[in-house]
Amino acid sequence: MTNTITYPKTVPAEKQDKQPGLEKLMNPKPIYEDAEYKGTGKLKNKVAVITGGDSGIGKAVAIAYAKEGARIAIIYLDEHEDANETKKIIETNGAECLLIHGDIGDEEFCKESVKKIINQYNAIDILVNNAGEQHPQNSVEDITKEQLERTFKTNIFAMFYLTKYVLPYLKDGSSIINTSSVTAYKGNKTLIDYSSTKGAIVSFTRSMALSVASRNIRVNAVAPGPIWTPLIPSSFSAEDVGKFGLNTTLGRPGQPVELAPCYVFLAEDGSSYISGETIHINGGEIINS
Fold this sequence. Notes:
alpha/beta
């Protein structure tokens, strides 16, 4: 099948002042959907929980899951306009969507969120731990205690909390998918704490895969390279954003829609013999792990 999407080679130098950023302020908008993508029921009647599903990678995954027949629960911070727009697209594709907003770094919120999802759908089959935050600093000396704790709470603690409270509802054939990063493997001199959390996600994925293998629950990760999401202009200077993704082998930033099929694959039965693995979607960079 011929690819009908034209991916931009560059993105403009732009800056947002608040994380995790708003899709509505981005120009150009991220590409989150392939209009030619037709679902074939790979996830029919399954319930998928996606953190950070209001925009970016999570949005693309949520829409692809909806097209494959899943019912969706999106957990997000406070980007209500983005979240409602995503919900509208999901419902247009004939799927249900539950929105829950709050801080996933808080254990009680994670616990209550899972209760709400069970009350709504009476099941959970797929957990996508995707939400994250990053705060560039020139030196480890500039990383405050507050920033360190905040980054780990969102990127790591939340993953533990949600997995902990979702796990009792998962059954034979269920899937957990975690979003790591290329920075877990190659590092990043201005994202030391963020890269550390992403490395921890790889280890968490491998350990959880071993922990739940006897229950036939699979745990995998995706390690994206530079992907055009609201987190980028809300994290970096306009100058750095203007150079975003140009140093990849393919010479451009990736788009959220380019990751969605991988998350579909890891959630459906076609990947039934894959667990504890990380798939690298990074524009052609060779990662030896």
